[in-house]
Amino acid sequence: MPSPVTVDRTVPYFPGATVLGYPRIGPGRQLKKALEAFWSGRSELDDLQVSLEKLRMETRRHLADLGLTFDDGAIPLDFSPYDHVLDAAVMLGAVPERFAGVVDAAGRVGPVGYFALARGDGDRAPLEMTKWFDSNYHYLVPEIGPETPIRFADDRLVRDFLQAAADGDTVRPVVVGPLTFLLLSKPADGSPDGFHPLDRLDDVLAAYTDLLRAFGDAGAPWVQLDEPALVADTWEVPRERVLAALTRGLEVLAGELARPARPALFLAAPYGDLGDALPPVADSHVEAVGLDLVRGPLPRPDVLRRLAGKVVVGGVVDGRNVWRTDLERALELLLRLSDGIGEGARVAVSTSCSLLHVPHDASRERRLGQALRPALAFADQKVEEVQVLARGLALGADSVRAELAAAGEARAARTRHPGVRRDDVAARVAGLTEADLTRAPYEERSAAQAEILGLPALPTTTIGSFPQTVELRRARVALKKRDLDREGYERVVREEIARVVRLQEELGLDVLVHGEPERNDMVQYFAEQLDGFAVTDHGWVQSYGSRCTRPPILFGGVARPAPMTVPWTTYAASLTDRPVKAMVTGPVTMLAWSFVRDDQPLAETAQQVALALRDEIADLQDAGIRIVQVDEPALRELLPLRRAEREDYLAWAVRAFRVATSVAGPDTQVHTHLCYSEFGDILDAIDAMDADVTSIEAARSRMEILPELRAAGFCRGVGPGVYDIHSPRVPSTEEVTGLLTAALAAVPAGRLWVNPDCGLKTRGFEETTAALANLVEAARAVRATLPGGAGI
Asked: If 0-12 CB within 10 Å is exposed, 13-18 middle and 19+ buried, where does residue 180 land?
């Protein structure tokens, strides 16, 4: 048990138990419903603002009901109406020049302008979207140039704090840190060669100084600055420059700006190990430091001693996965942390990162088996775990002995589940050879596919899904409630497939899809049919904006009892004489967008999933389907944040893809789909996947990836997206023509495909039809300019 320490009361008391953030969508997806009602015109701006404030207040009060307290800032204020990085950009007035009209004379961006930045507006493309570190959350990328206005322009974050205070709730504001903001940004169009957003550090620090002063004036006891960029070493700027910028930022915000002019500062660095960034943080004047002790090790003793005089917040409860914490091990780690820090330091307990990445409450999941449900901890259960550990740290392990025993038994019961260990699955993985990973040479495949498919240059297609109609959703709900039998549901699905096939023929697309009307989600659909997965009823998490997903839970050995896509794909193929493409979700994405078992290496789990998909691809091929797309949008998402770990990850990720796809014969064309941009650092891995055609997100980034593909000598088919499906705007024929013309500068016409950035599930049919019509018209126009009008 740690010795008591003297707390400096010139700094506000820091709670013994807290969390770094909490889900902001609401347990009933209130955020999604409020946003989409406003966007569709079914509600007014005042209605939206009332709904958002109600959700913020309900979240604060719920955390208090769970045992966190208001009087010491244990409850984080981390709510965003769309995205926290966008919030930081708006706070700084850092708006791209094309959106200058949404900024008022004081530099503020109103709600309409805020959503225009996120979703686009007329001819103005929205901010690019990409993954938030190695998670399934996606943020909007700020665009910063030498002349981008940067100042403390919008005090919404302070007003949210004051609103909470007016309700009697003292909370801890959470803000994206200045270094992370700049490292996540991209140079604005027209920036000179060699410019990096980090060049604007002093301007950003000046704005953050004003923000902290405003929080101080408002009475905020603590402000949490999130700096996850410090745990990564893969930025375009050298690590030495990152550390120098960190030192400068700490000097300005924690040193030159001293208390009581500012709140006490809690610097949190989730998602990994601070490493060489911890000493300058330890030597700074920040009052609290958060360590991710789930994904990072306990720091060295000499570094721990340098934390004397600070609150050290041990993130020992995993904020990324849904399994119950090994409380005994976590408590032992906290005690070692407490023993290692110096005189005058104090240990507090927290989650490893924000609980943004997990669902709200596992107790709502009534259909999960008794061996599985007790082993789960969603956000509410993790709040409770943090408090148990804080009590054990303060009062000793005996004070929480019952809770430790219950957690241990729940974890043990999970291992006894009959599906966790399957000898047949393990034996099949062990029996894989290099021959199982190899296809015929690309030249042989390309010739065979050209003969059997007979496609023109610049063939047009979509990524797979089409908009999900109200009727489809109602039929799915009715089936679940048993108000509709399986035969009736399948009739609805077949009718929708027929409608989508007719639409694609009318539009003139070259390669058709069945539209995926039977799929609720690209991962959950397969998880529901594979052994080793469980699905939830209420396990929603935010992917971006109003987009929510329900990640399945991968708990055991993975196998495929029966075909999953063959009946629907072959039915679509029977309706047309054009090629029909089948879509399956790849092994890495199945892992990335699920809550994965933590009791075996990811590489082994990936191979199990790959073998199940291999069986599906073999059956599709046997049924006469000659184009199969294996979607891997999450390939880059799981990329480790440290360079030293990337080679191993990419090796097993590529291996899993090839295990799944190498069953395809030379005349079966294998596609893969990647999205959310920034592929330059994994081009070798993309090439090693050996897909015949790779479609990639490229519309928002204006084809940024293509020069890198050309420089890398990429020699297979490429489909750079020309229609940004994450925005409601419809690209004009001229816009698509311009993108295709740019693409032809990097990709020969014989290898260039024309497609949207991603699936169309979240869009409406009216905008989808208009956008695809423009896509087809643009492809025909560009095709007509090629030699012989065909480019072959």
From this structure: buried
